[in-house]
Specification:
mainly alpha, 16 helices, about 400 residues, about 0% strand
Length: about 400
């Protein structure tokens, strides 16, 4: 069997250069973390430009949710693949990740040169609060788009939102379980247990994992590659899931950084645009300089890239099947519920007092009312300035 090289024979209304330019801009100016980034992609590429159809976007979002790796990066890989195959996926991925990678490397250099970034806490004080408003408006729009009026879908949505809040992470087993539940209730499968079908599915699901397990090599770069490749291969969802995993390895197991340095690395990821997992570049720089930053970033993104493009043509080919459509619908609604729950989780971490709560509320209202006229980078810059002004008064001991 040969893997098709394109997902759609129709000529797209945009060029690959235009798509790369969009993701280069998003990677440079896209603040708010994975949840906000996938919201920007929907607004810009589906609603405004209409380069990507709603069905293609939902397919990509679902595949990004059910496969391990960073959510926003995987969705960008898929959207690049839709009309421009493997080349489009690779170039779009580089365009999306490169700007934030260069930023965190520059910050890593400044961090090591000046012995820390104490001003970063003040910036994050304002930016972190504004990010909650940005994420909340994105979650609201996704909820309206995906859930509808079906009581079963609302039940799945609420359960996944609550589970995310309670466990402080996205529960992939609930997301996949929701897909199977909707599938069984809405479009019951027939002849499912044919041996050849089960074997082919198992082979398809295991092949990307087996292909991306790196060989252990001596030295610190080998350790970095192995650790971050594992994170990219087996950690699901957004930064909510990957941060605890990184902390366990970077601070506890390998002791590359202390706890404060790790928190600074997370803060760098939050105050820079692009995917949150680009913090791996900052961590790699602190551990082994520029080579360490490159190895960490490559190791993080290659597995999730393969786990996106390998199943993509099969996912597209069979996605119209009623059973698969029902499964996709269940997974999409469950993932949207998890996103809504993530707003609460992140809010508990960032909204620590009255000023931060007000910043988040004003951001939410402003984007809800003036969303098409007000750009997120401007909001982030204003919030950073507010943070620099207010933080010394709210934390005089810092």
């Amino acid at each position: 069997m040969t893997i098709p090289t394109t997902l759609d024979a129709d000529k797209p209304s945009y060029s690959l250069k235009q798509l790369m330019q969009y993701f280069l801009k998003l990677g440079t100016l896209g603040f708010g973390g994975p949840i906000a980034l996938v919201g920007y992609m929907h607004r810009d590429l589906v609603e405004e430009r209409q380069w990507i159809s709603e069905a293609e976007y939902q397919e990509g979002l679902t595949l990004a949710q059910v496969a391990p790796g960073p959510l926003a990066a995987q969705l960008s890989f898929y959207l690049g693949y839709v009309h421009y195959s493997i080349l489009g996926s690779a170039l779009v991925g580089v365009a999306f990740v490169l700007p934030s990678f260069l930023m965190v490397v520059a910050l890593g250099w400044a961090y090591t040169l000046f012995g820390g970034l104490s001003w970063m806490q003040a910036v994050f004080y304002g930016v972190g609060a504004a990010v909650i408003g940005i994420i909340a408006i994105s979650a609201y729009k996704l909820t309206r788009k995906t859930v509808g009026t079906d009581w079963l879908l609302w039940g799945i949505y609420v359960v996944n939102a609550a589970a995310t809040v309670i466990t402080q992470s996205e529960r992939v087993e609930l997301i996949l379980g929701a897909g199977f539940l909707v599938w069984l209730l809405k479009s019951p499968p027939r002849n499912w247990f044919k041996g050849n079908r089960v074997n082919s599915i198992l082979g398809l699901s295991l092949a990307p994992f087996l292909a991306t397990v790196p060989t252990v090599t001596p030295g610190i770069l080998g350790q970095i590659f192995l650790f971050f490749a594992t994170a990219g291969s087996f950690v699901f969802g957004s930064g909510l899931a990957i941060i605890p995993f990184l902390y366990g390895g970077v601070v506890k197991d390998f002791q590359w950084l202390d706890a404060q340095q790790f928190l600074d690395a997370v803060a760098v990821a939050m105050i820079t645009p692009g995917p949150v997992v680009i913090t791996t570049g900052f961590i790699g720089f602190l551990v082994a300089g520029f080579p360490g930053a490159c190895v960490a970033a490559i190791a993080m993104f290659i597995p999730c890239y393969l786990l996106t493009i390998i199943p993509a043509p099969y996912f597209k080919k069979h996605g119209k099947n009623p059973g698969i459509s029902a499964f996709v619908k269940g997974v999409t609604v469950a993932a949207t519920g998890a996103i809504a729950g993530a707003v609460v989780v992140l809010g508990q971490q960032s909204l620590r007092d009255l000023p931060t709560s007000l910043i988040a509320l004003v951001t939410l209202v402003a984007l809800g009312k003036f969303g098409k006229k007000l750009s997120e980078p401007i909001v982030v810059v204003i919030a950073a300035i507010i943070g620099l002004v207010l933080y010394p008064f709210m934390h005089p001991q810092a």
